[in-house]
Specification:
The protein is an alpha+beta fold and 488 residues long. The chain has helices at 13-65, 71-75, 95-101, 103-115, 138-151, 191-233, 247-293, 298-325, 336-349, 368-386, 436-446, 471-487, and strands at residues 83-88, 122-130, 163-171, 178-185, 332-335, 353-358, 363-366, 388-395, 399-405, 450-455, 461-468.
Length: 488
């Protein structure tokens, strides 16, 4: 599964801005709905407190004025279609229900009654919704029937709409009777709230998508600029980018176009200059060589010829280096397993020990001839200086990884970086120009990759090349890795 590999730093600027906008919109919408819900709940609690308190304060003086044994008869007279008073040995709500719903209202009402001079032994306040299943209950059934009959003419499905009943259970000092006050209240209906929130969310999403489209239009030139820079770094021909977008983006695009043109001219000029220099030196060297052959004595002649040949080798190496690293040929999709297999077979045919381990079959985009030269140089160096070449091909999320191991003496740790310098042979014996690794690094870097050398234990050298995967390969791999997740 590839989702665990996604991180903020791997996302494009457009994706990051889009995520921020969506997150902000969702946060504000959630906060708005939450605040509205809290306001509805606060209004409902205020209704229960005010209407319930008014009902109790209306009835309480009449109850206190009567004897304990006649209070039940007095209580039966305080009833209407929206409120009623019943007496009993048990409260109309359980203490658990009252504690869970409205303990603060009960405390506040008891304190208010005591402040008005009425002693209250106990008070419980609860809130309950009347459903059709409550129609067999004495009090709730009466409320339910009244509600159904009062709305039957205007709403055929009125029986399906529940009502809320506030329950206030009160007990007076020296009186074992519970006085249960039932009051119809407006239900905490969140449907209008959700409908309004849905409308607000729809409007917010419309403007969000509009902003995302605007962000995409603004950042479009930046994406084209990024792709152009990548193409320029890999030696591809970069067309002149159209200056689009904001003023600073247009100025950046224009500056990139000028830089691209200068880099191309500078590279072509440098290559032509080195080739011309090598060609121009050939003539004088040949004339000096012919002249040296007529010099005597023989020892001086041999010494001159040796020095002339050394200079000639250097000129040839420089020309070879320029030709090897020249950006000739077009970029194509290179199948690395096939390329490495051919190079390993080439060494086996020459009688050298070599092997290939393909852990992941991948392709890269590059110049086939240049990559062949770079990888051949590594394999030949491994065989030449380490008697054996063990080639491994693997991949990471974005790179093809090629390692070439040998069993040679390795390189001193402080000389590993110097091995890539042109004409640096590090005291190697035998023929050679010291340009092999320099050519390899120039080609790898030109393809947007990197190379490093490391000593192996107990002996040997490892060369590791990382080349960017073909974008089509990355896209296909990400789709295939996300497919199982989406199907679950």
């Amino acid at each position: 599964m590839a989702l665990h590999r996604l991180s903020w730093s791997t996302w494009t600027l457009r994706t990051q801005v889009t995520c921020v906008i969506v997150l902000v919109v969702l946060t504000f919408e959630t906060a708005s709905v939450g605040l509205d819900y809290l306001q509805i709940r606060a209004d409902h609690k205020s209704e229960v407190s005010n209407r319930g308190g008014a009902f109790v304060q209306e009835v309480l003086p009449a109850l206190i004025a009567e004897a304990v044994e006649t209070r039940a008869d007095v209580a039966s007279g305080f009833s209407s279609s929206e409120r009623t008073l019943r007496t009993g040995q048990e409260p109309g709500t359980s203490e658990e229900e009252a504690t869970r719903l409205h303990p603060d209202i009960a405390t506040a009402l008891a304190d208010r009654l005591r402040a008005d001079g009425f002693e209250v032994e106990s008070m419980l306040v609860a809130d309950r919704r009347i459903e059709a299943t409550d129609s067999d209950h004495d009090v709730f059934g009466a409320f339910f029937s009244q509600h159904q009959s009062s709305t039957q003419e205007t709403d055929e499905d009125a029986s399906l709409n529940p009502e809320n009943v506030a329950i206030l259970s009160l007990r007076l000092p020296d009186d074992p009777t519970w006085y249960n006050f039932y009051i119809l209240t407006e239900p905490m209906n969140t449907v209008p709230l959700l409908m309004a929130a849905s409308l607000d969310t729809g409007i917010a999403l419309f403007f969000t998508f509009a902003m995302i489209a605007l962000v995409g239009r603004v950042l479009g030139p930046m994406r084209a600029l990024s792709e152009g820079a990548e193409q320029l770094g890999r030696g591809e021909k970069v067309d002149v980018l159209p200056p689009e977008g904001s003023k600073d983006v247009r100025e950046t695009v224009v500056a990139f176009n000028r830089m691209s043109e200068r880099v191309r001219h500078a590279y072509d000029y440098q290559s032509s200059l080195i080739q011309s220099l090598g060609h121009d030196l050939r003539g004088p060297l040949d004339r000096v060589r012919r002249l040296a052959k007529t010099t005597s004595p023989e020892q001086i002649r041999d010494d001159l010829l040796q020095r002339i040949n050394s200079v000639d080798d250097i000129v040839g190496s420089v020309t070879s280096f320029t030709r090897a690293t020249r950006r000739d040929g077009t970029l194509v999709r290179v199948d690395l397993p096939s390329l490495l297999d051919a190079l390993v077979e080439e060494q086996l045919d020459l009688g050298h020990q070599s092997s290939l381990d393909v852990k992941a079959a991948v392709t890269v985009k590059g110049r086939h001839s240049a990559l062949t030269r770079a990888l051949r140089n590594l394999v030949e160096n491994a065989v030449k200086y380490g008697t054996v070449a063990r080639v491994t091909l693997d991949r990471t999320d974005r790179f093809a990884v090629i390692t070439v191991d040998d069993d040679g003496k390795g390189i001193a740790p402080d000389q590993l970086e110097n091995a890539f310098r042109p004409f640096e042979r590090l005291n190697a014996e035998g023929p050679g120009s010291g340009l092999g690794l320099a050519i390899v690094k120039a080609i790898v870097v030109d393809h947007g990759g990197e190379i490093e050398l490391a000593n192996r234990a107990p002996s040997g050298l490892r060369a590791t090349i990382r080349l960017p995967l073909d974008p089509m390969e990355i896209s296909r791999t990400e789709k295939s890795s996300l497919a199982p997740t989406q199907s679950q």
